[in-house]
């Protein structure tokens, strides 16, 4: 089993494409409250794991060898407690009661065997850059069993021998079962590096970049996000300084705290721009009340347009984002600055496109962030005014003031709708399979975003 895991790990390492040296920083902090949650939901799997098969007890005391069947009827874990060990990992303390049936003659015997289990586990960065938990010490400690039924007919000698037998078997197997449980957890944690779609041809993948930082209050994973466009990693032109998330930050007592650096957002916007996802064409239709994009409307403002197009023809606004949108995080608010290049074209009589003029536009948007499921979503609205400058004209003088009302308002709504649809799809946050964020809250700080959230594990 271990060999198979190792081989798989090696394969995944070979498949990972070279990651750009500078990488947008993300910090995932798992806080103490998450350990209480794990302690809660972990009892049932622990109980299952401890249902161990005990071989029959061979009684040598009589005249002939008597095999006595023994069965663990149930395991109850009344108490499970997890703590962080600074600089190392986790400490586990659990108590369990085994209900054991001994099929002795003439009467079966039922025992309760209490156990206290302590274990330390190291949390480290694994070979495929996911967190790996490994048990370093594990010691089950048994207390004397209490007899529920059938004590009258059982010799005290048999009781002592049976207990010795059961304890010997359990001592061997309990820690093995705990290790298996942890192996399953590691496979699960390995899904951190799964690729998640960002857009049609783009994906994001998170992986650890260093050993986790462990204090008495949290485990922090420094995670980098690599964005892929058509399978190729996107390299940020700016050099990414390492991102440090202050402590404490966000909601006190939250299970998880995520810190997302500005670089992650820059990288996502660069990806969307490179993918051309931010470009759009706004097309006018003739004889439509709500879309007055036609040459006769424009001809009233620009005589040359009226001269060239005596018959009304539809207009097309080609909106392209040459410059990457820039996001800025101030305390409590986020803004997005777009600099679209808008080309105004008319469909001429031979249905070819004819460029009339082009505009350089600057628009500031306010960006609201929210989390749903495991995705960070955005919504924008226009902040202040749209600034237009004429870049080129084939129709003589263009009065910006005059075309502002027509062109500015006409591309504003489609651009916002387009952008909001795109940002509304959201980008996957670092997570593992079946783990969801609950009641997430988003906070904007100078230069970074913090998400405080509960966690919910769905089997
Ligand atoms: C488990 O064992 C402990 C110690 O013997 C006892 O105090 C406790 O009541 C037991 N719990 C159950 C559910 O049997
Ligand atoms: C065990 O012994 C007690 C008295 O010592 C008696 O009351 C009880 O019925 C006996 N139980 C069984 C199962 O024989
Ligand atoms: C052109 O747009 C104007 C509104 O600016 C509208 O009244 C007119 O009907 C449109 N013309 C055509 C032919 O669609
Ligand atoms: C955003 O915050 C900054 C600094 O706190 C402030 O100067 C700016 O006016 C705010 N903008 C909005 C749209 O609230
Ligand atoms: C956009 O915001 C920047 C910085 O806050 C400001 O300097 C600029 O004038 C704004 N532009 C527009 C078009 O509102």
Automatic annotation (TrEMBL):
Signal peptide: 1-21
Keyword list, A-Z: Signal
InterPro entries found in the cross-reference section: Bactericidal_perm-incr_a/b_dom (IPR017943), BPI_fold-BPI/LBP (IPR051660), Lipid-bd_serum_glycop_C (IPR001124), Lipid-bd_serum_glycop_N (IPR017942)
Name assigned to this protein: BPI fold containing family B member 2
Domain Lipid-binding serum glycoprotein C-terminal stretches: 250-453
Molecular function GO terms recorded: lipid binding
PANTHER family noted in UniProt: BPI FOLD-CONTAINING FAMILY B MEMBER 2, BPI FOLD-CONTAINING FAMILY B MEMBER 4-RELATED
């Amino acid at each position: 089993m271990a060999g198979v895991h190792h081989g798989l790990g090696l394969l995944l390492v070979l498949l990972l494409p070279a990651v750009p040296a500078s990488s947008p920083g993300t910090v995932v902090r798992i806080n103490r409250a998450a350990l209480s949650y794990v302690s809660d939901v972990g009892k049932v799997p622990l109980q299952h794991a401890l249902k161990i098969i005990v071989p029959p007890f061979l009684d040598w005391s009589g005249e002939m060898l008597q095999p006595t069947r023994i069965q663990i009827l149930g395991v109850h874990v009344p108490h499970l407690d997890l703590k962080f060990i600074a600089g190392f990992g986790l400490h586990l303390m659990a108590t369990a009661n085994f209900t054991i049936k001994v099929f002795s003659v003439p009467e079966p015997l039922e025992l309760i065997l209490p156990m206290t289990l302590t274990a330390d586990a190291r949390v480290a960065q694994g070979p495929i850059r996911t967190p790996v938990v490994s048990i370093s010490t594990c010691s089950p400690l048994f207390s004397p069993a209490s007899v529920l039924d059938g004590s009258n007919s059982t010799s005290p000698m048999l009781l002592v021998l049976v207990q010795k037998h059961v304890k010997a078997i359990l001592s061997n197997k309990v820690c093995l079962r705990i290790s298996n449980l942890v192996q399953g957890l590691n496979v699960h944690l390995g899904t951190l590096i799964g690729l998640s779609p960002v857009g049609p041809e783009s994906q994001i993948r998170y992986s650890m970049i260093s050993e986790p930082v462990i204090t008495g209050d949290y485990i922090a994973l420094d995670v980098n996000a690599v964005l892929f466009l058509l399978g190729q990693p996107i390299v940020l032109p700016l050099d990414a300084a390492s991102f440090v998330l202050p402590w404490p930050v966000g909601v006190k007592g939250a299970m998880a705290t995520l810190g997302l650096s500005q670089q992650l957002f820059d990288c996502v916007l660069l990806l969307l721009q490179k993918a051309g996802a931010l470009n759009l064409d706004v097309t006018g239709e003739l004889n439509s009340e709500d879309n007055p994009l036609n040459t006769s409307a424009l001809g009233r403002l620009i005589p040359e347009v009226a001269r060239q197009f005596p018959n009304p023809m539809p207009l097309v606004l080609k909106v392209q984002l040459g410059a990457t949108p820039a996001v800025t995080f101030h305390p409590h608010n986020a803004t997005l600055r777009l600099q679209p290049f808008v080309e105004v074209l008319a469909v001429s009589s031979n249905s070819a496109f004819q460029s009339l003029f082009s505009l350089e536009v600057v628009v500031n948007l306010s960006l609201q962030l929210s989390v749903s499921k495991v995705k960070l979503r955005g919504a924008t609205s226009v902040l202040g005014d749209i600034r237009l400058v004429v870049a080129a004209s084939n129709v003589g003088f263009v009065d910006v003031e005059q075309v502002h009302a027509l062109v500015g308002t006409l591309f504003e709504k489609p651009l916002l709708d387009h952008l909001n649809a795109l940002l509304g799809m959201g980008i996957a946050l670092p997570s593992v399979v079946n783990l969801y964020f609950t009641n997430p809250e988003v906070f904007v700080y100078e230069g970074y975003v913090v998400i405080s959230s509960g966690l919910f594990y769905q089997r």
